[in-house]
Amino acid sequence: MAGGKESARQKMINIMYLVLLAMLALNVSDTILNAFKNINDSLVVSTTNVEASINSLMTSFENTKLKEQPDRAKPLYDKAKQALAIGEDLNKYIEGLKQQFKTEGQGIDPETGDLVERSNQDIAPGIMINKMKGAELKAKINETDAKLRALVDPKERGGLTFSLLAKDPENRVDGVRKSWEEVNFGEGTPLTAAMTILSKIQTDVKNAESDIIKRLLGNLDKAPVILDKFSAVAVAPSSYIIAGQPYTAEIFLTAYDSQANPQVSVNGSNVSVRDGKGMYTVSTSREGMFSYKGSITLRQADGTFKSYPLPEQKYQVSRPSAVVSPTAMNVFYIGVPNPVSVSAPGIPKENLRVSMSGGSISGSNGTYTVKVNSAGIAKVNVSADFNGKVQQIGSSEFRIKRIPDPVPQFAGKSSGSVSSVQIKSQSTVFARLNGFEFDARFTVTGFTLIIAKPRADAVVIKGSGNDLTPAMRTAMNAVAPGTRVIFDNIEAVGPDGSTRAIGAIALTAN
């Protein structure tokens, strides 16, 4: 402003200019306000992502560990749910403060996406300082921190990485000792900056929940070794042993330490120890029931040794044997699949190896199908895989036979009286297997029809296939009560492909 004498109007203008400059100095630039808005948006997204990660972790734990190990998983899962509830309580309180900010700040400006009064420097201090909401928030933050840390074993609290405490600064700020709430929400704090600080606290809460929950649920994967109670255990692959195969058992302490080096004794003699487990092997050259006892001796934390007795263990040694049982009959038939079951006591079905002579066999895991082509004897051989070594354990012989001849039928009968009406209504000759266990079918390939009426010459017609020829149908129309209807020289072909003469059908019309 220029010097010299000024008019009253000029003085008024100068005063107004000075007031404007003071007002501009108090205003916060849009660039800074926009920066707070961007930071706030980023914190909200980060909070959402952490929450999604927590939900995914909880869901995965529910679907796996909680179902597989409910006794161990349930206490940890319940503590994780407590952590969520503790964090949610503080989060709801902060959301209430945000809502007050929005109400006092006249809501959200659709153009900026920020509070209408985002640059206002009186609203946040008015709520947080004058109305003591800041002090209340500080107390809730510290209370939440304490509750979350209390969920974790004291020995593990030192490894927690989150920081949720709200402490007053130790040093003076601008020469004045200020409280935590004054530093964050005191005089000169724009409303959008205060909103960003609340979002930052919400992010810290979610990170604290995540840290606690990961640590709690992760404890299930740790292998606790509590050496206060011990039980000696012997585990053998099988208690049923084939002669010639060794008997092997693992003898160890439950919840054992693989780095330990216990002394394992069986029947007074020490056995080799590997990875904390004793390996006991004995030959099985004789049949019968056998047993053994032992003990496990382990060095204690105080340097002394303590022995734990092994309960008596029993195992049986038997001669090689196999059970081969035909599913349908004690014979194999030519031309049809013959189902066979194969098993051996004490041996898993998948370890069996089955072969045969006199035919072919296919299948696995105890269920097989045999096919044979000519009469005679077939032999089924059974071997077993014992830890990579294949040993013959048995064989069985079976007779191979043709499928029995079928019985010819017309109008449902092979002989006897049939009404003339029923005879005239039928047109096909069948060959049926009565009481045969397999699904085998025969097809008539030819026959001779003889129709003998009383006091008349017999009509003889020969045909192929299993149906009546046109000439046969015409002759059948003349059948009357007392007429003899004979099907002779009947031939049929079955599953084995051979043609068979299967007898005759003799019917009398009534």
Considering the chains and any ligands shown, give keywords for the structure.
single chain, 510 residues, alpha+beta, 6-stranded mixed beta sheet, 5-stranded mixed beta sheet, 10 helices, 25 strands, elongated
How many strands, what sense, and barrel or not for the largest sheet?
6 strands, mixed
**Strand tally, please?**
25
> What proportion strand?
25-35%
- CA radius of gyration: 48 Å
Poorly predicted runs: 19-26, 223-228
Mean pLDDT across residues: 84
First-last Cα distance: 144 Å
Count the helices. How many?
10
Q: Fraction of residues in helices?
A: 25-40%
Would you mind describing this structure in some detail?
The chain is an alpha+beta fold and 510 residues long. Helix content is 32%, strand content 30%. The chain contains 10 helices and 25 strands. It has helices at 8-26, 30-63, 65-68, 70-104, 123-130, 133-150, 180-185, 191-218, 420-425, 470-476, and strands spanning 232-235, 240-242, 247-253, 263-266, 269-270, 272-274, 277-282, 288-299, 305-318, 323-326, 332-333, 338-343, 352-357, 360-364, 367-371, 376-386, 389-401, 407-409, 415-418, 430-432, 443-452, 459-464, 484-493, 499-501, 505-509. Strands 19, 21, 22, 23, 24 and 25 form a 6-stranded mixed β-sheet that branches. A 5-stranded mixed β-sheet has the order 2-9-8-4-5, with no helix packed on it. A 4-stranded antiparallel β-sheet has the order 1-3-7-6, with no helix packed on it. It is elongated and about 160 Å long. The termini are far apart. Residues 19-26 and 223-228 have low confidence and may be disordered.
